[in-house]
Amino acid sequence: MLSPREAIRTLPSYHPPLARRTGLRLDFNENTVGCSPSVVERLRGITADDLARYPEREPVEREVANFLGLDPTELLLTNGVDEAIHLLCQTYLGPGDEALIVVPTYSMYRIYMMSAGADVISIPAADNFQFPAAGVRNRINPRTRLIAIANPNNPTGSLAPAGDLLAIAQAAPHAAILIDEAYFEFCGQTLLTRRRESPNLFIARTFSKAYGLAGLRIGALIGPPDQMPAVCRAASPYNVNAIALACLPEALADQTYIHNYVAEIRDSRARLEHTLTSFGLKFWTSQANFVLFRVAQTAADAAAFTDRMRARGILVRDRSSDPGCAGCVRITLGPREHTDHLLRVLQETIADLSIAAHQPDNPSEQGASLP
Ligand SMILES: Cc1ncc(COP(=O)(O)O)c(C=O)c1O
Q: Would the pTM of this model clear 0.85, i.e. be above it?
């Protein structure tokens, strides 16, 4: 009888709650106003002939490499960062290997690592969801073949110091180190300029967040030129579709759009953090386009909050099932008018549910100063 591989049979299924997403979508860290108008203009110019051809990735890869200040041999365009993660797992992991993640973090690392048959080692974040640099270093051993770190991290929004990440890469020369910079634009810190300091360092970028192109599925994997041919061998030659390839140069060219959008999101982040402070709710200072906060002590109360927000037309993400996140909700930030709406509904919902301010046991845990 036909049976899937054991690694797949035992894989937990991951169903992001994508159904019935009507209202203001502050649940998936997407751009809530859409991409640059010049991208939409380019879309209108796509012809039947453009669609009839297999897509050619290399010319656009040269443009992206040039934009990022890289040699084209260091870059692969991917079907979102998700494909980049998948390819690294396919390239470096097999049964018996260990892959390290710091939890809570982005769910797809575990899924792709497990599907490659590797043993996933979860290292808990340090106090206040800070990056556990020593904890990761101490867990490295000869079986460690991949370490994936989101920086800034999702769902906590916290940022690991570049020096800690490089030290980990240098301590594990036999492992691939993925620094997932999906939220780079909202914080500005990158390891791209220091990539040559360790020959096992990979960096991922996405166009799903600040650029507003989640539906096009396009991201980039940057890695050492001597490693990239192996990663490319694991990829389909047509992994990125023609529409995404046609639009990406337009998206990159409109940096004014990105600059203005990011400025609005940072402003919204400060407003939300200020409001959470005024309610006495515990939150974690974020370097990304979302904020994680504790709305209740129990998962059931966090679910009631999420349902009530949905009933008022705003989708937010219950993160209660993530390690260390019981009672926590993550809210994505949009520009000013979306934040006006969010803060109004948040206030009403908090009043509805009589959510009591619960100060953290340890005052040093309180979300830090406002930006
Ligand atoms: C840390 C992180 N990496 C990657 C992704 C997925 O990116 P993409 O849409 O490029 O596949 C997400 C999406 O939420 C994310 O939070």
A: yes
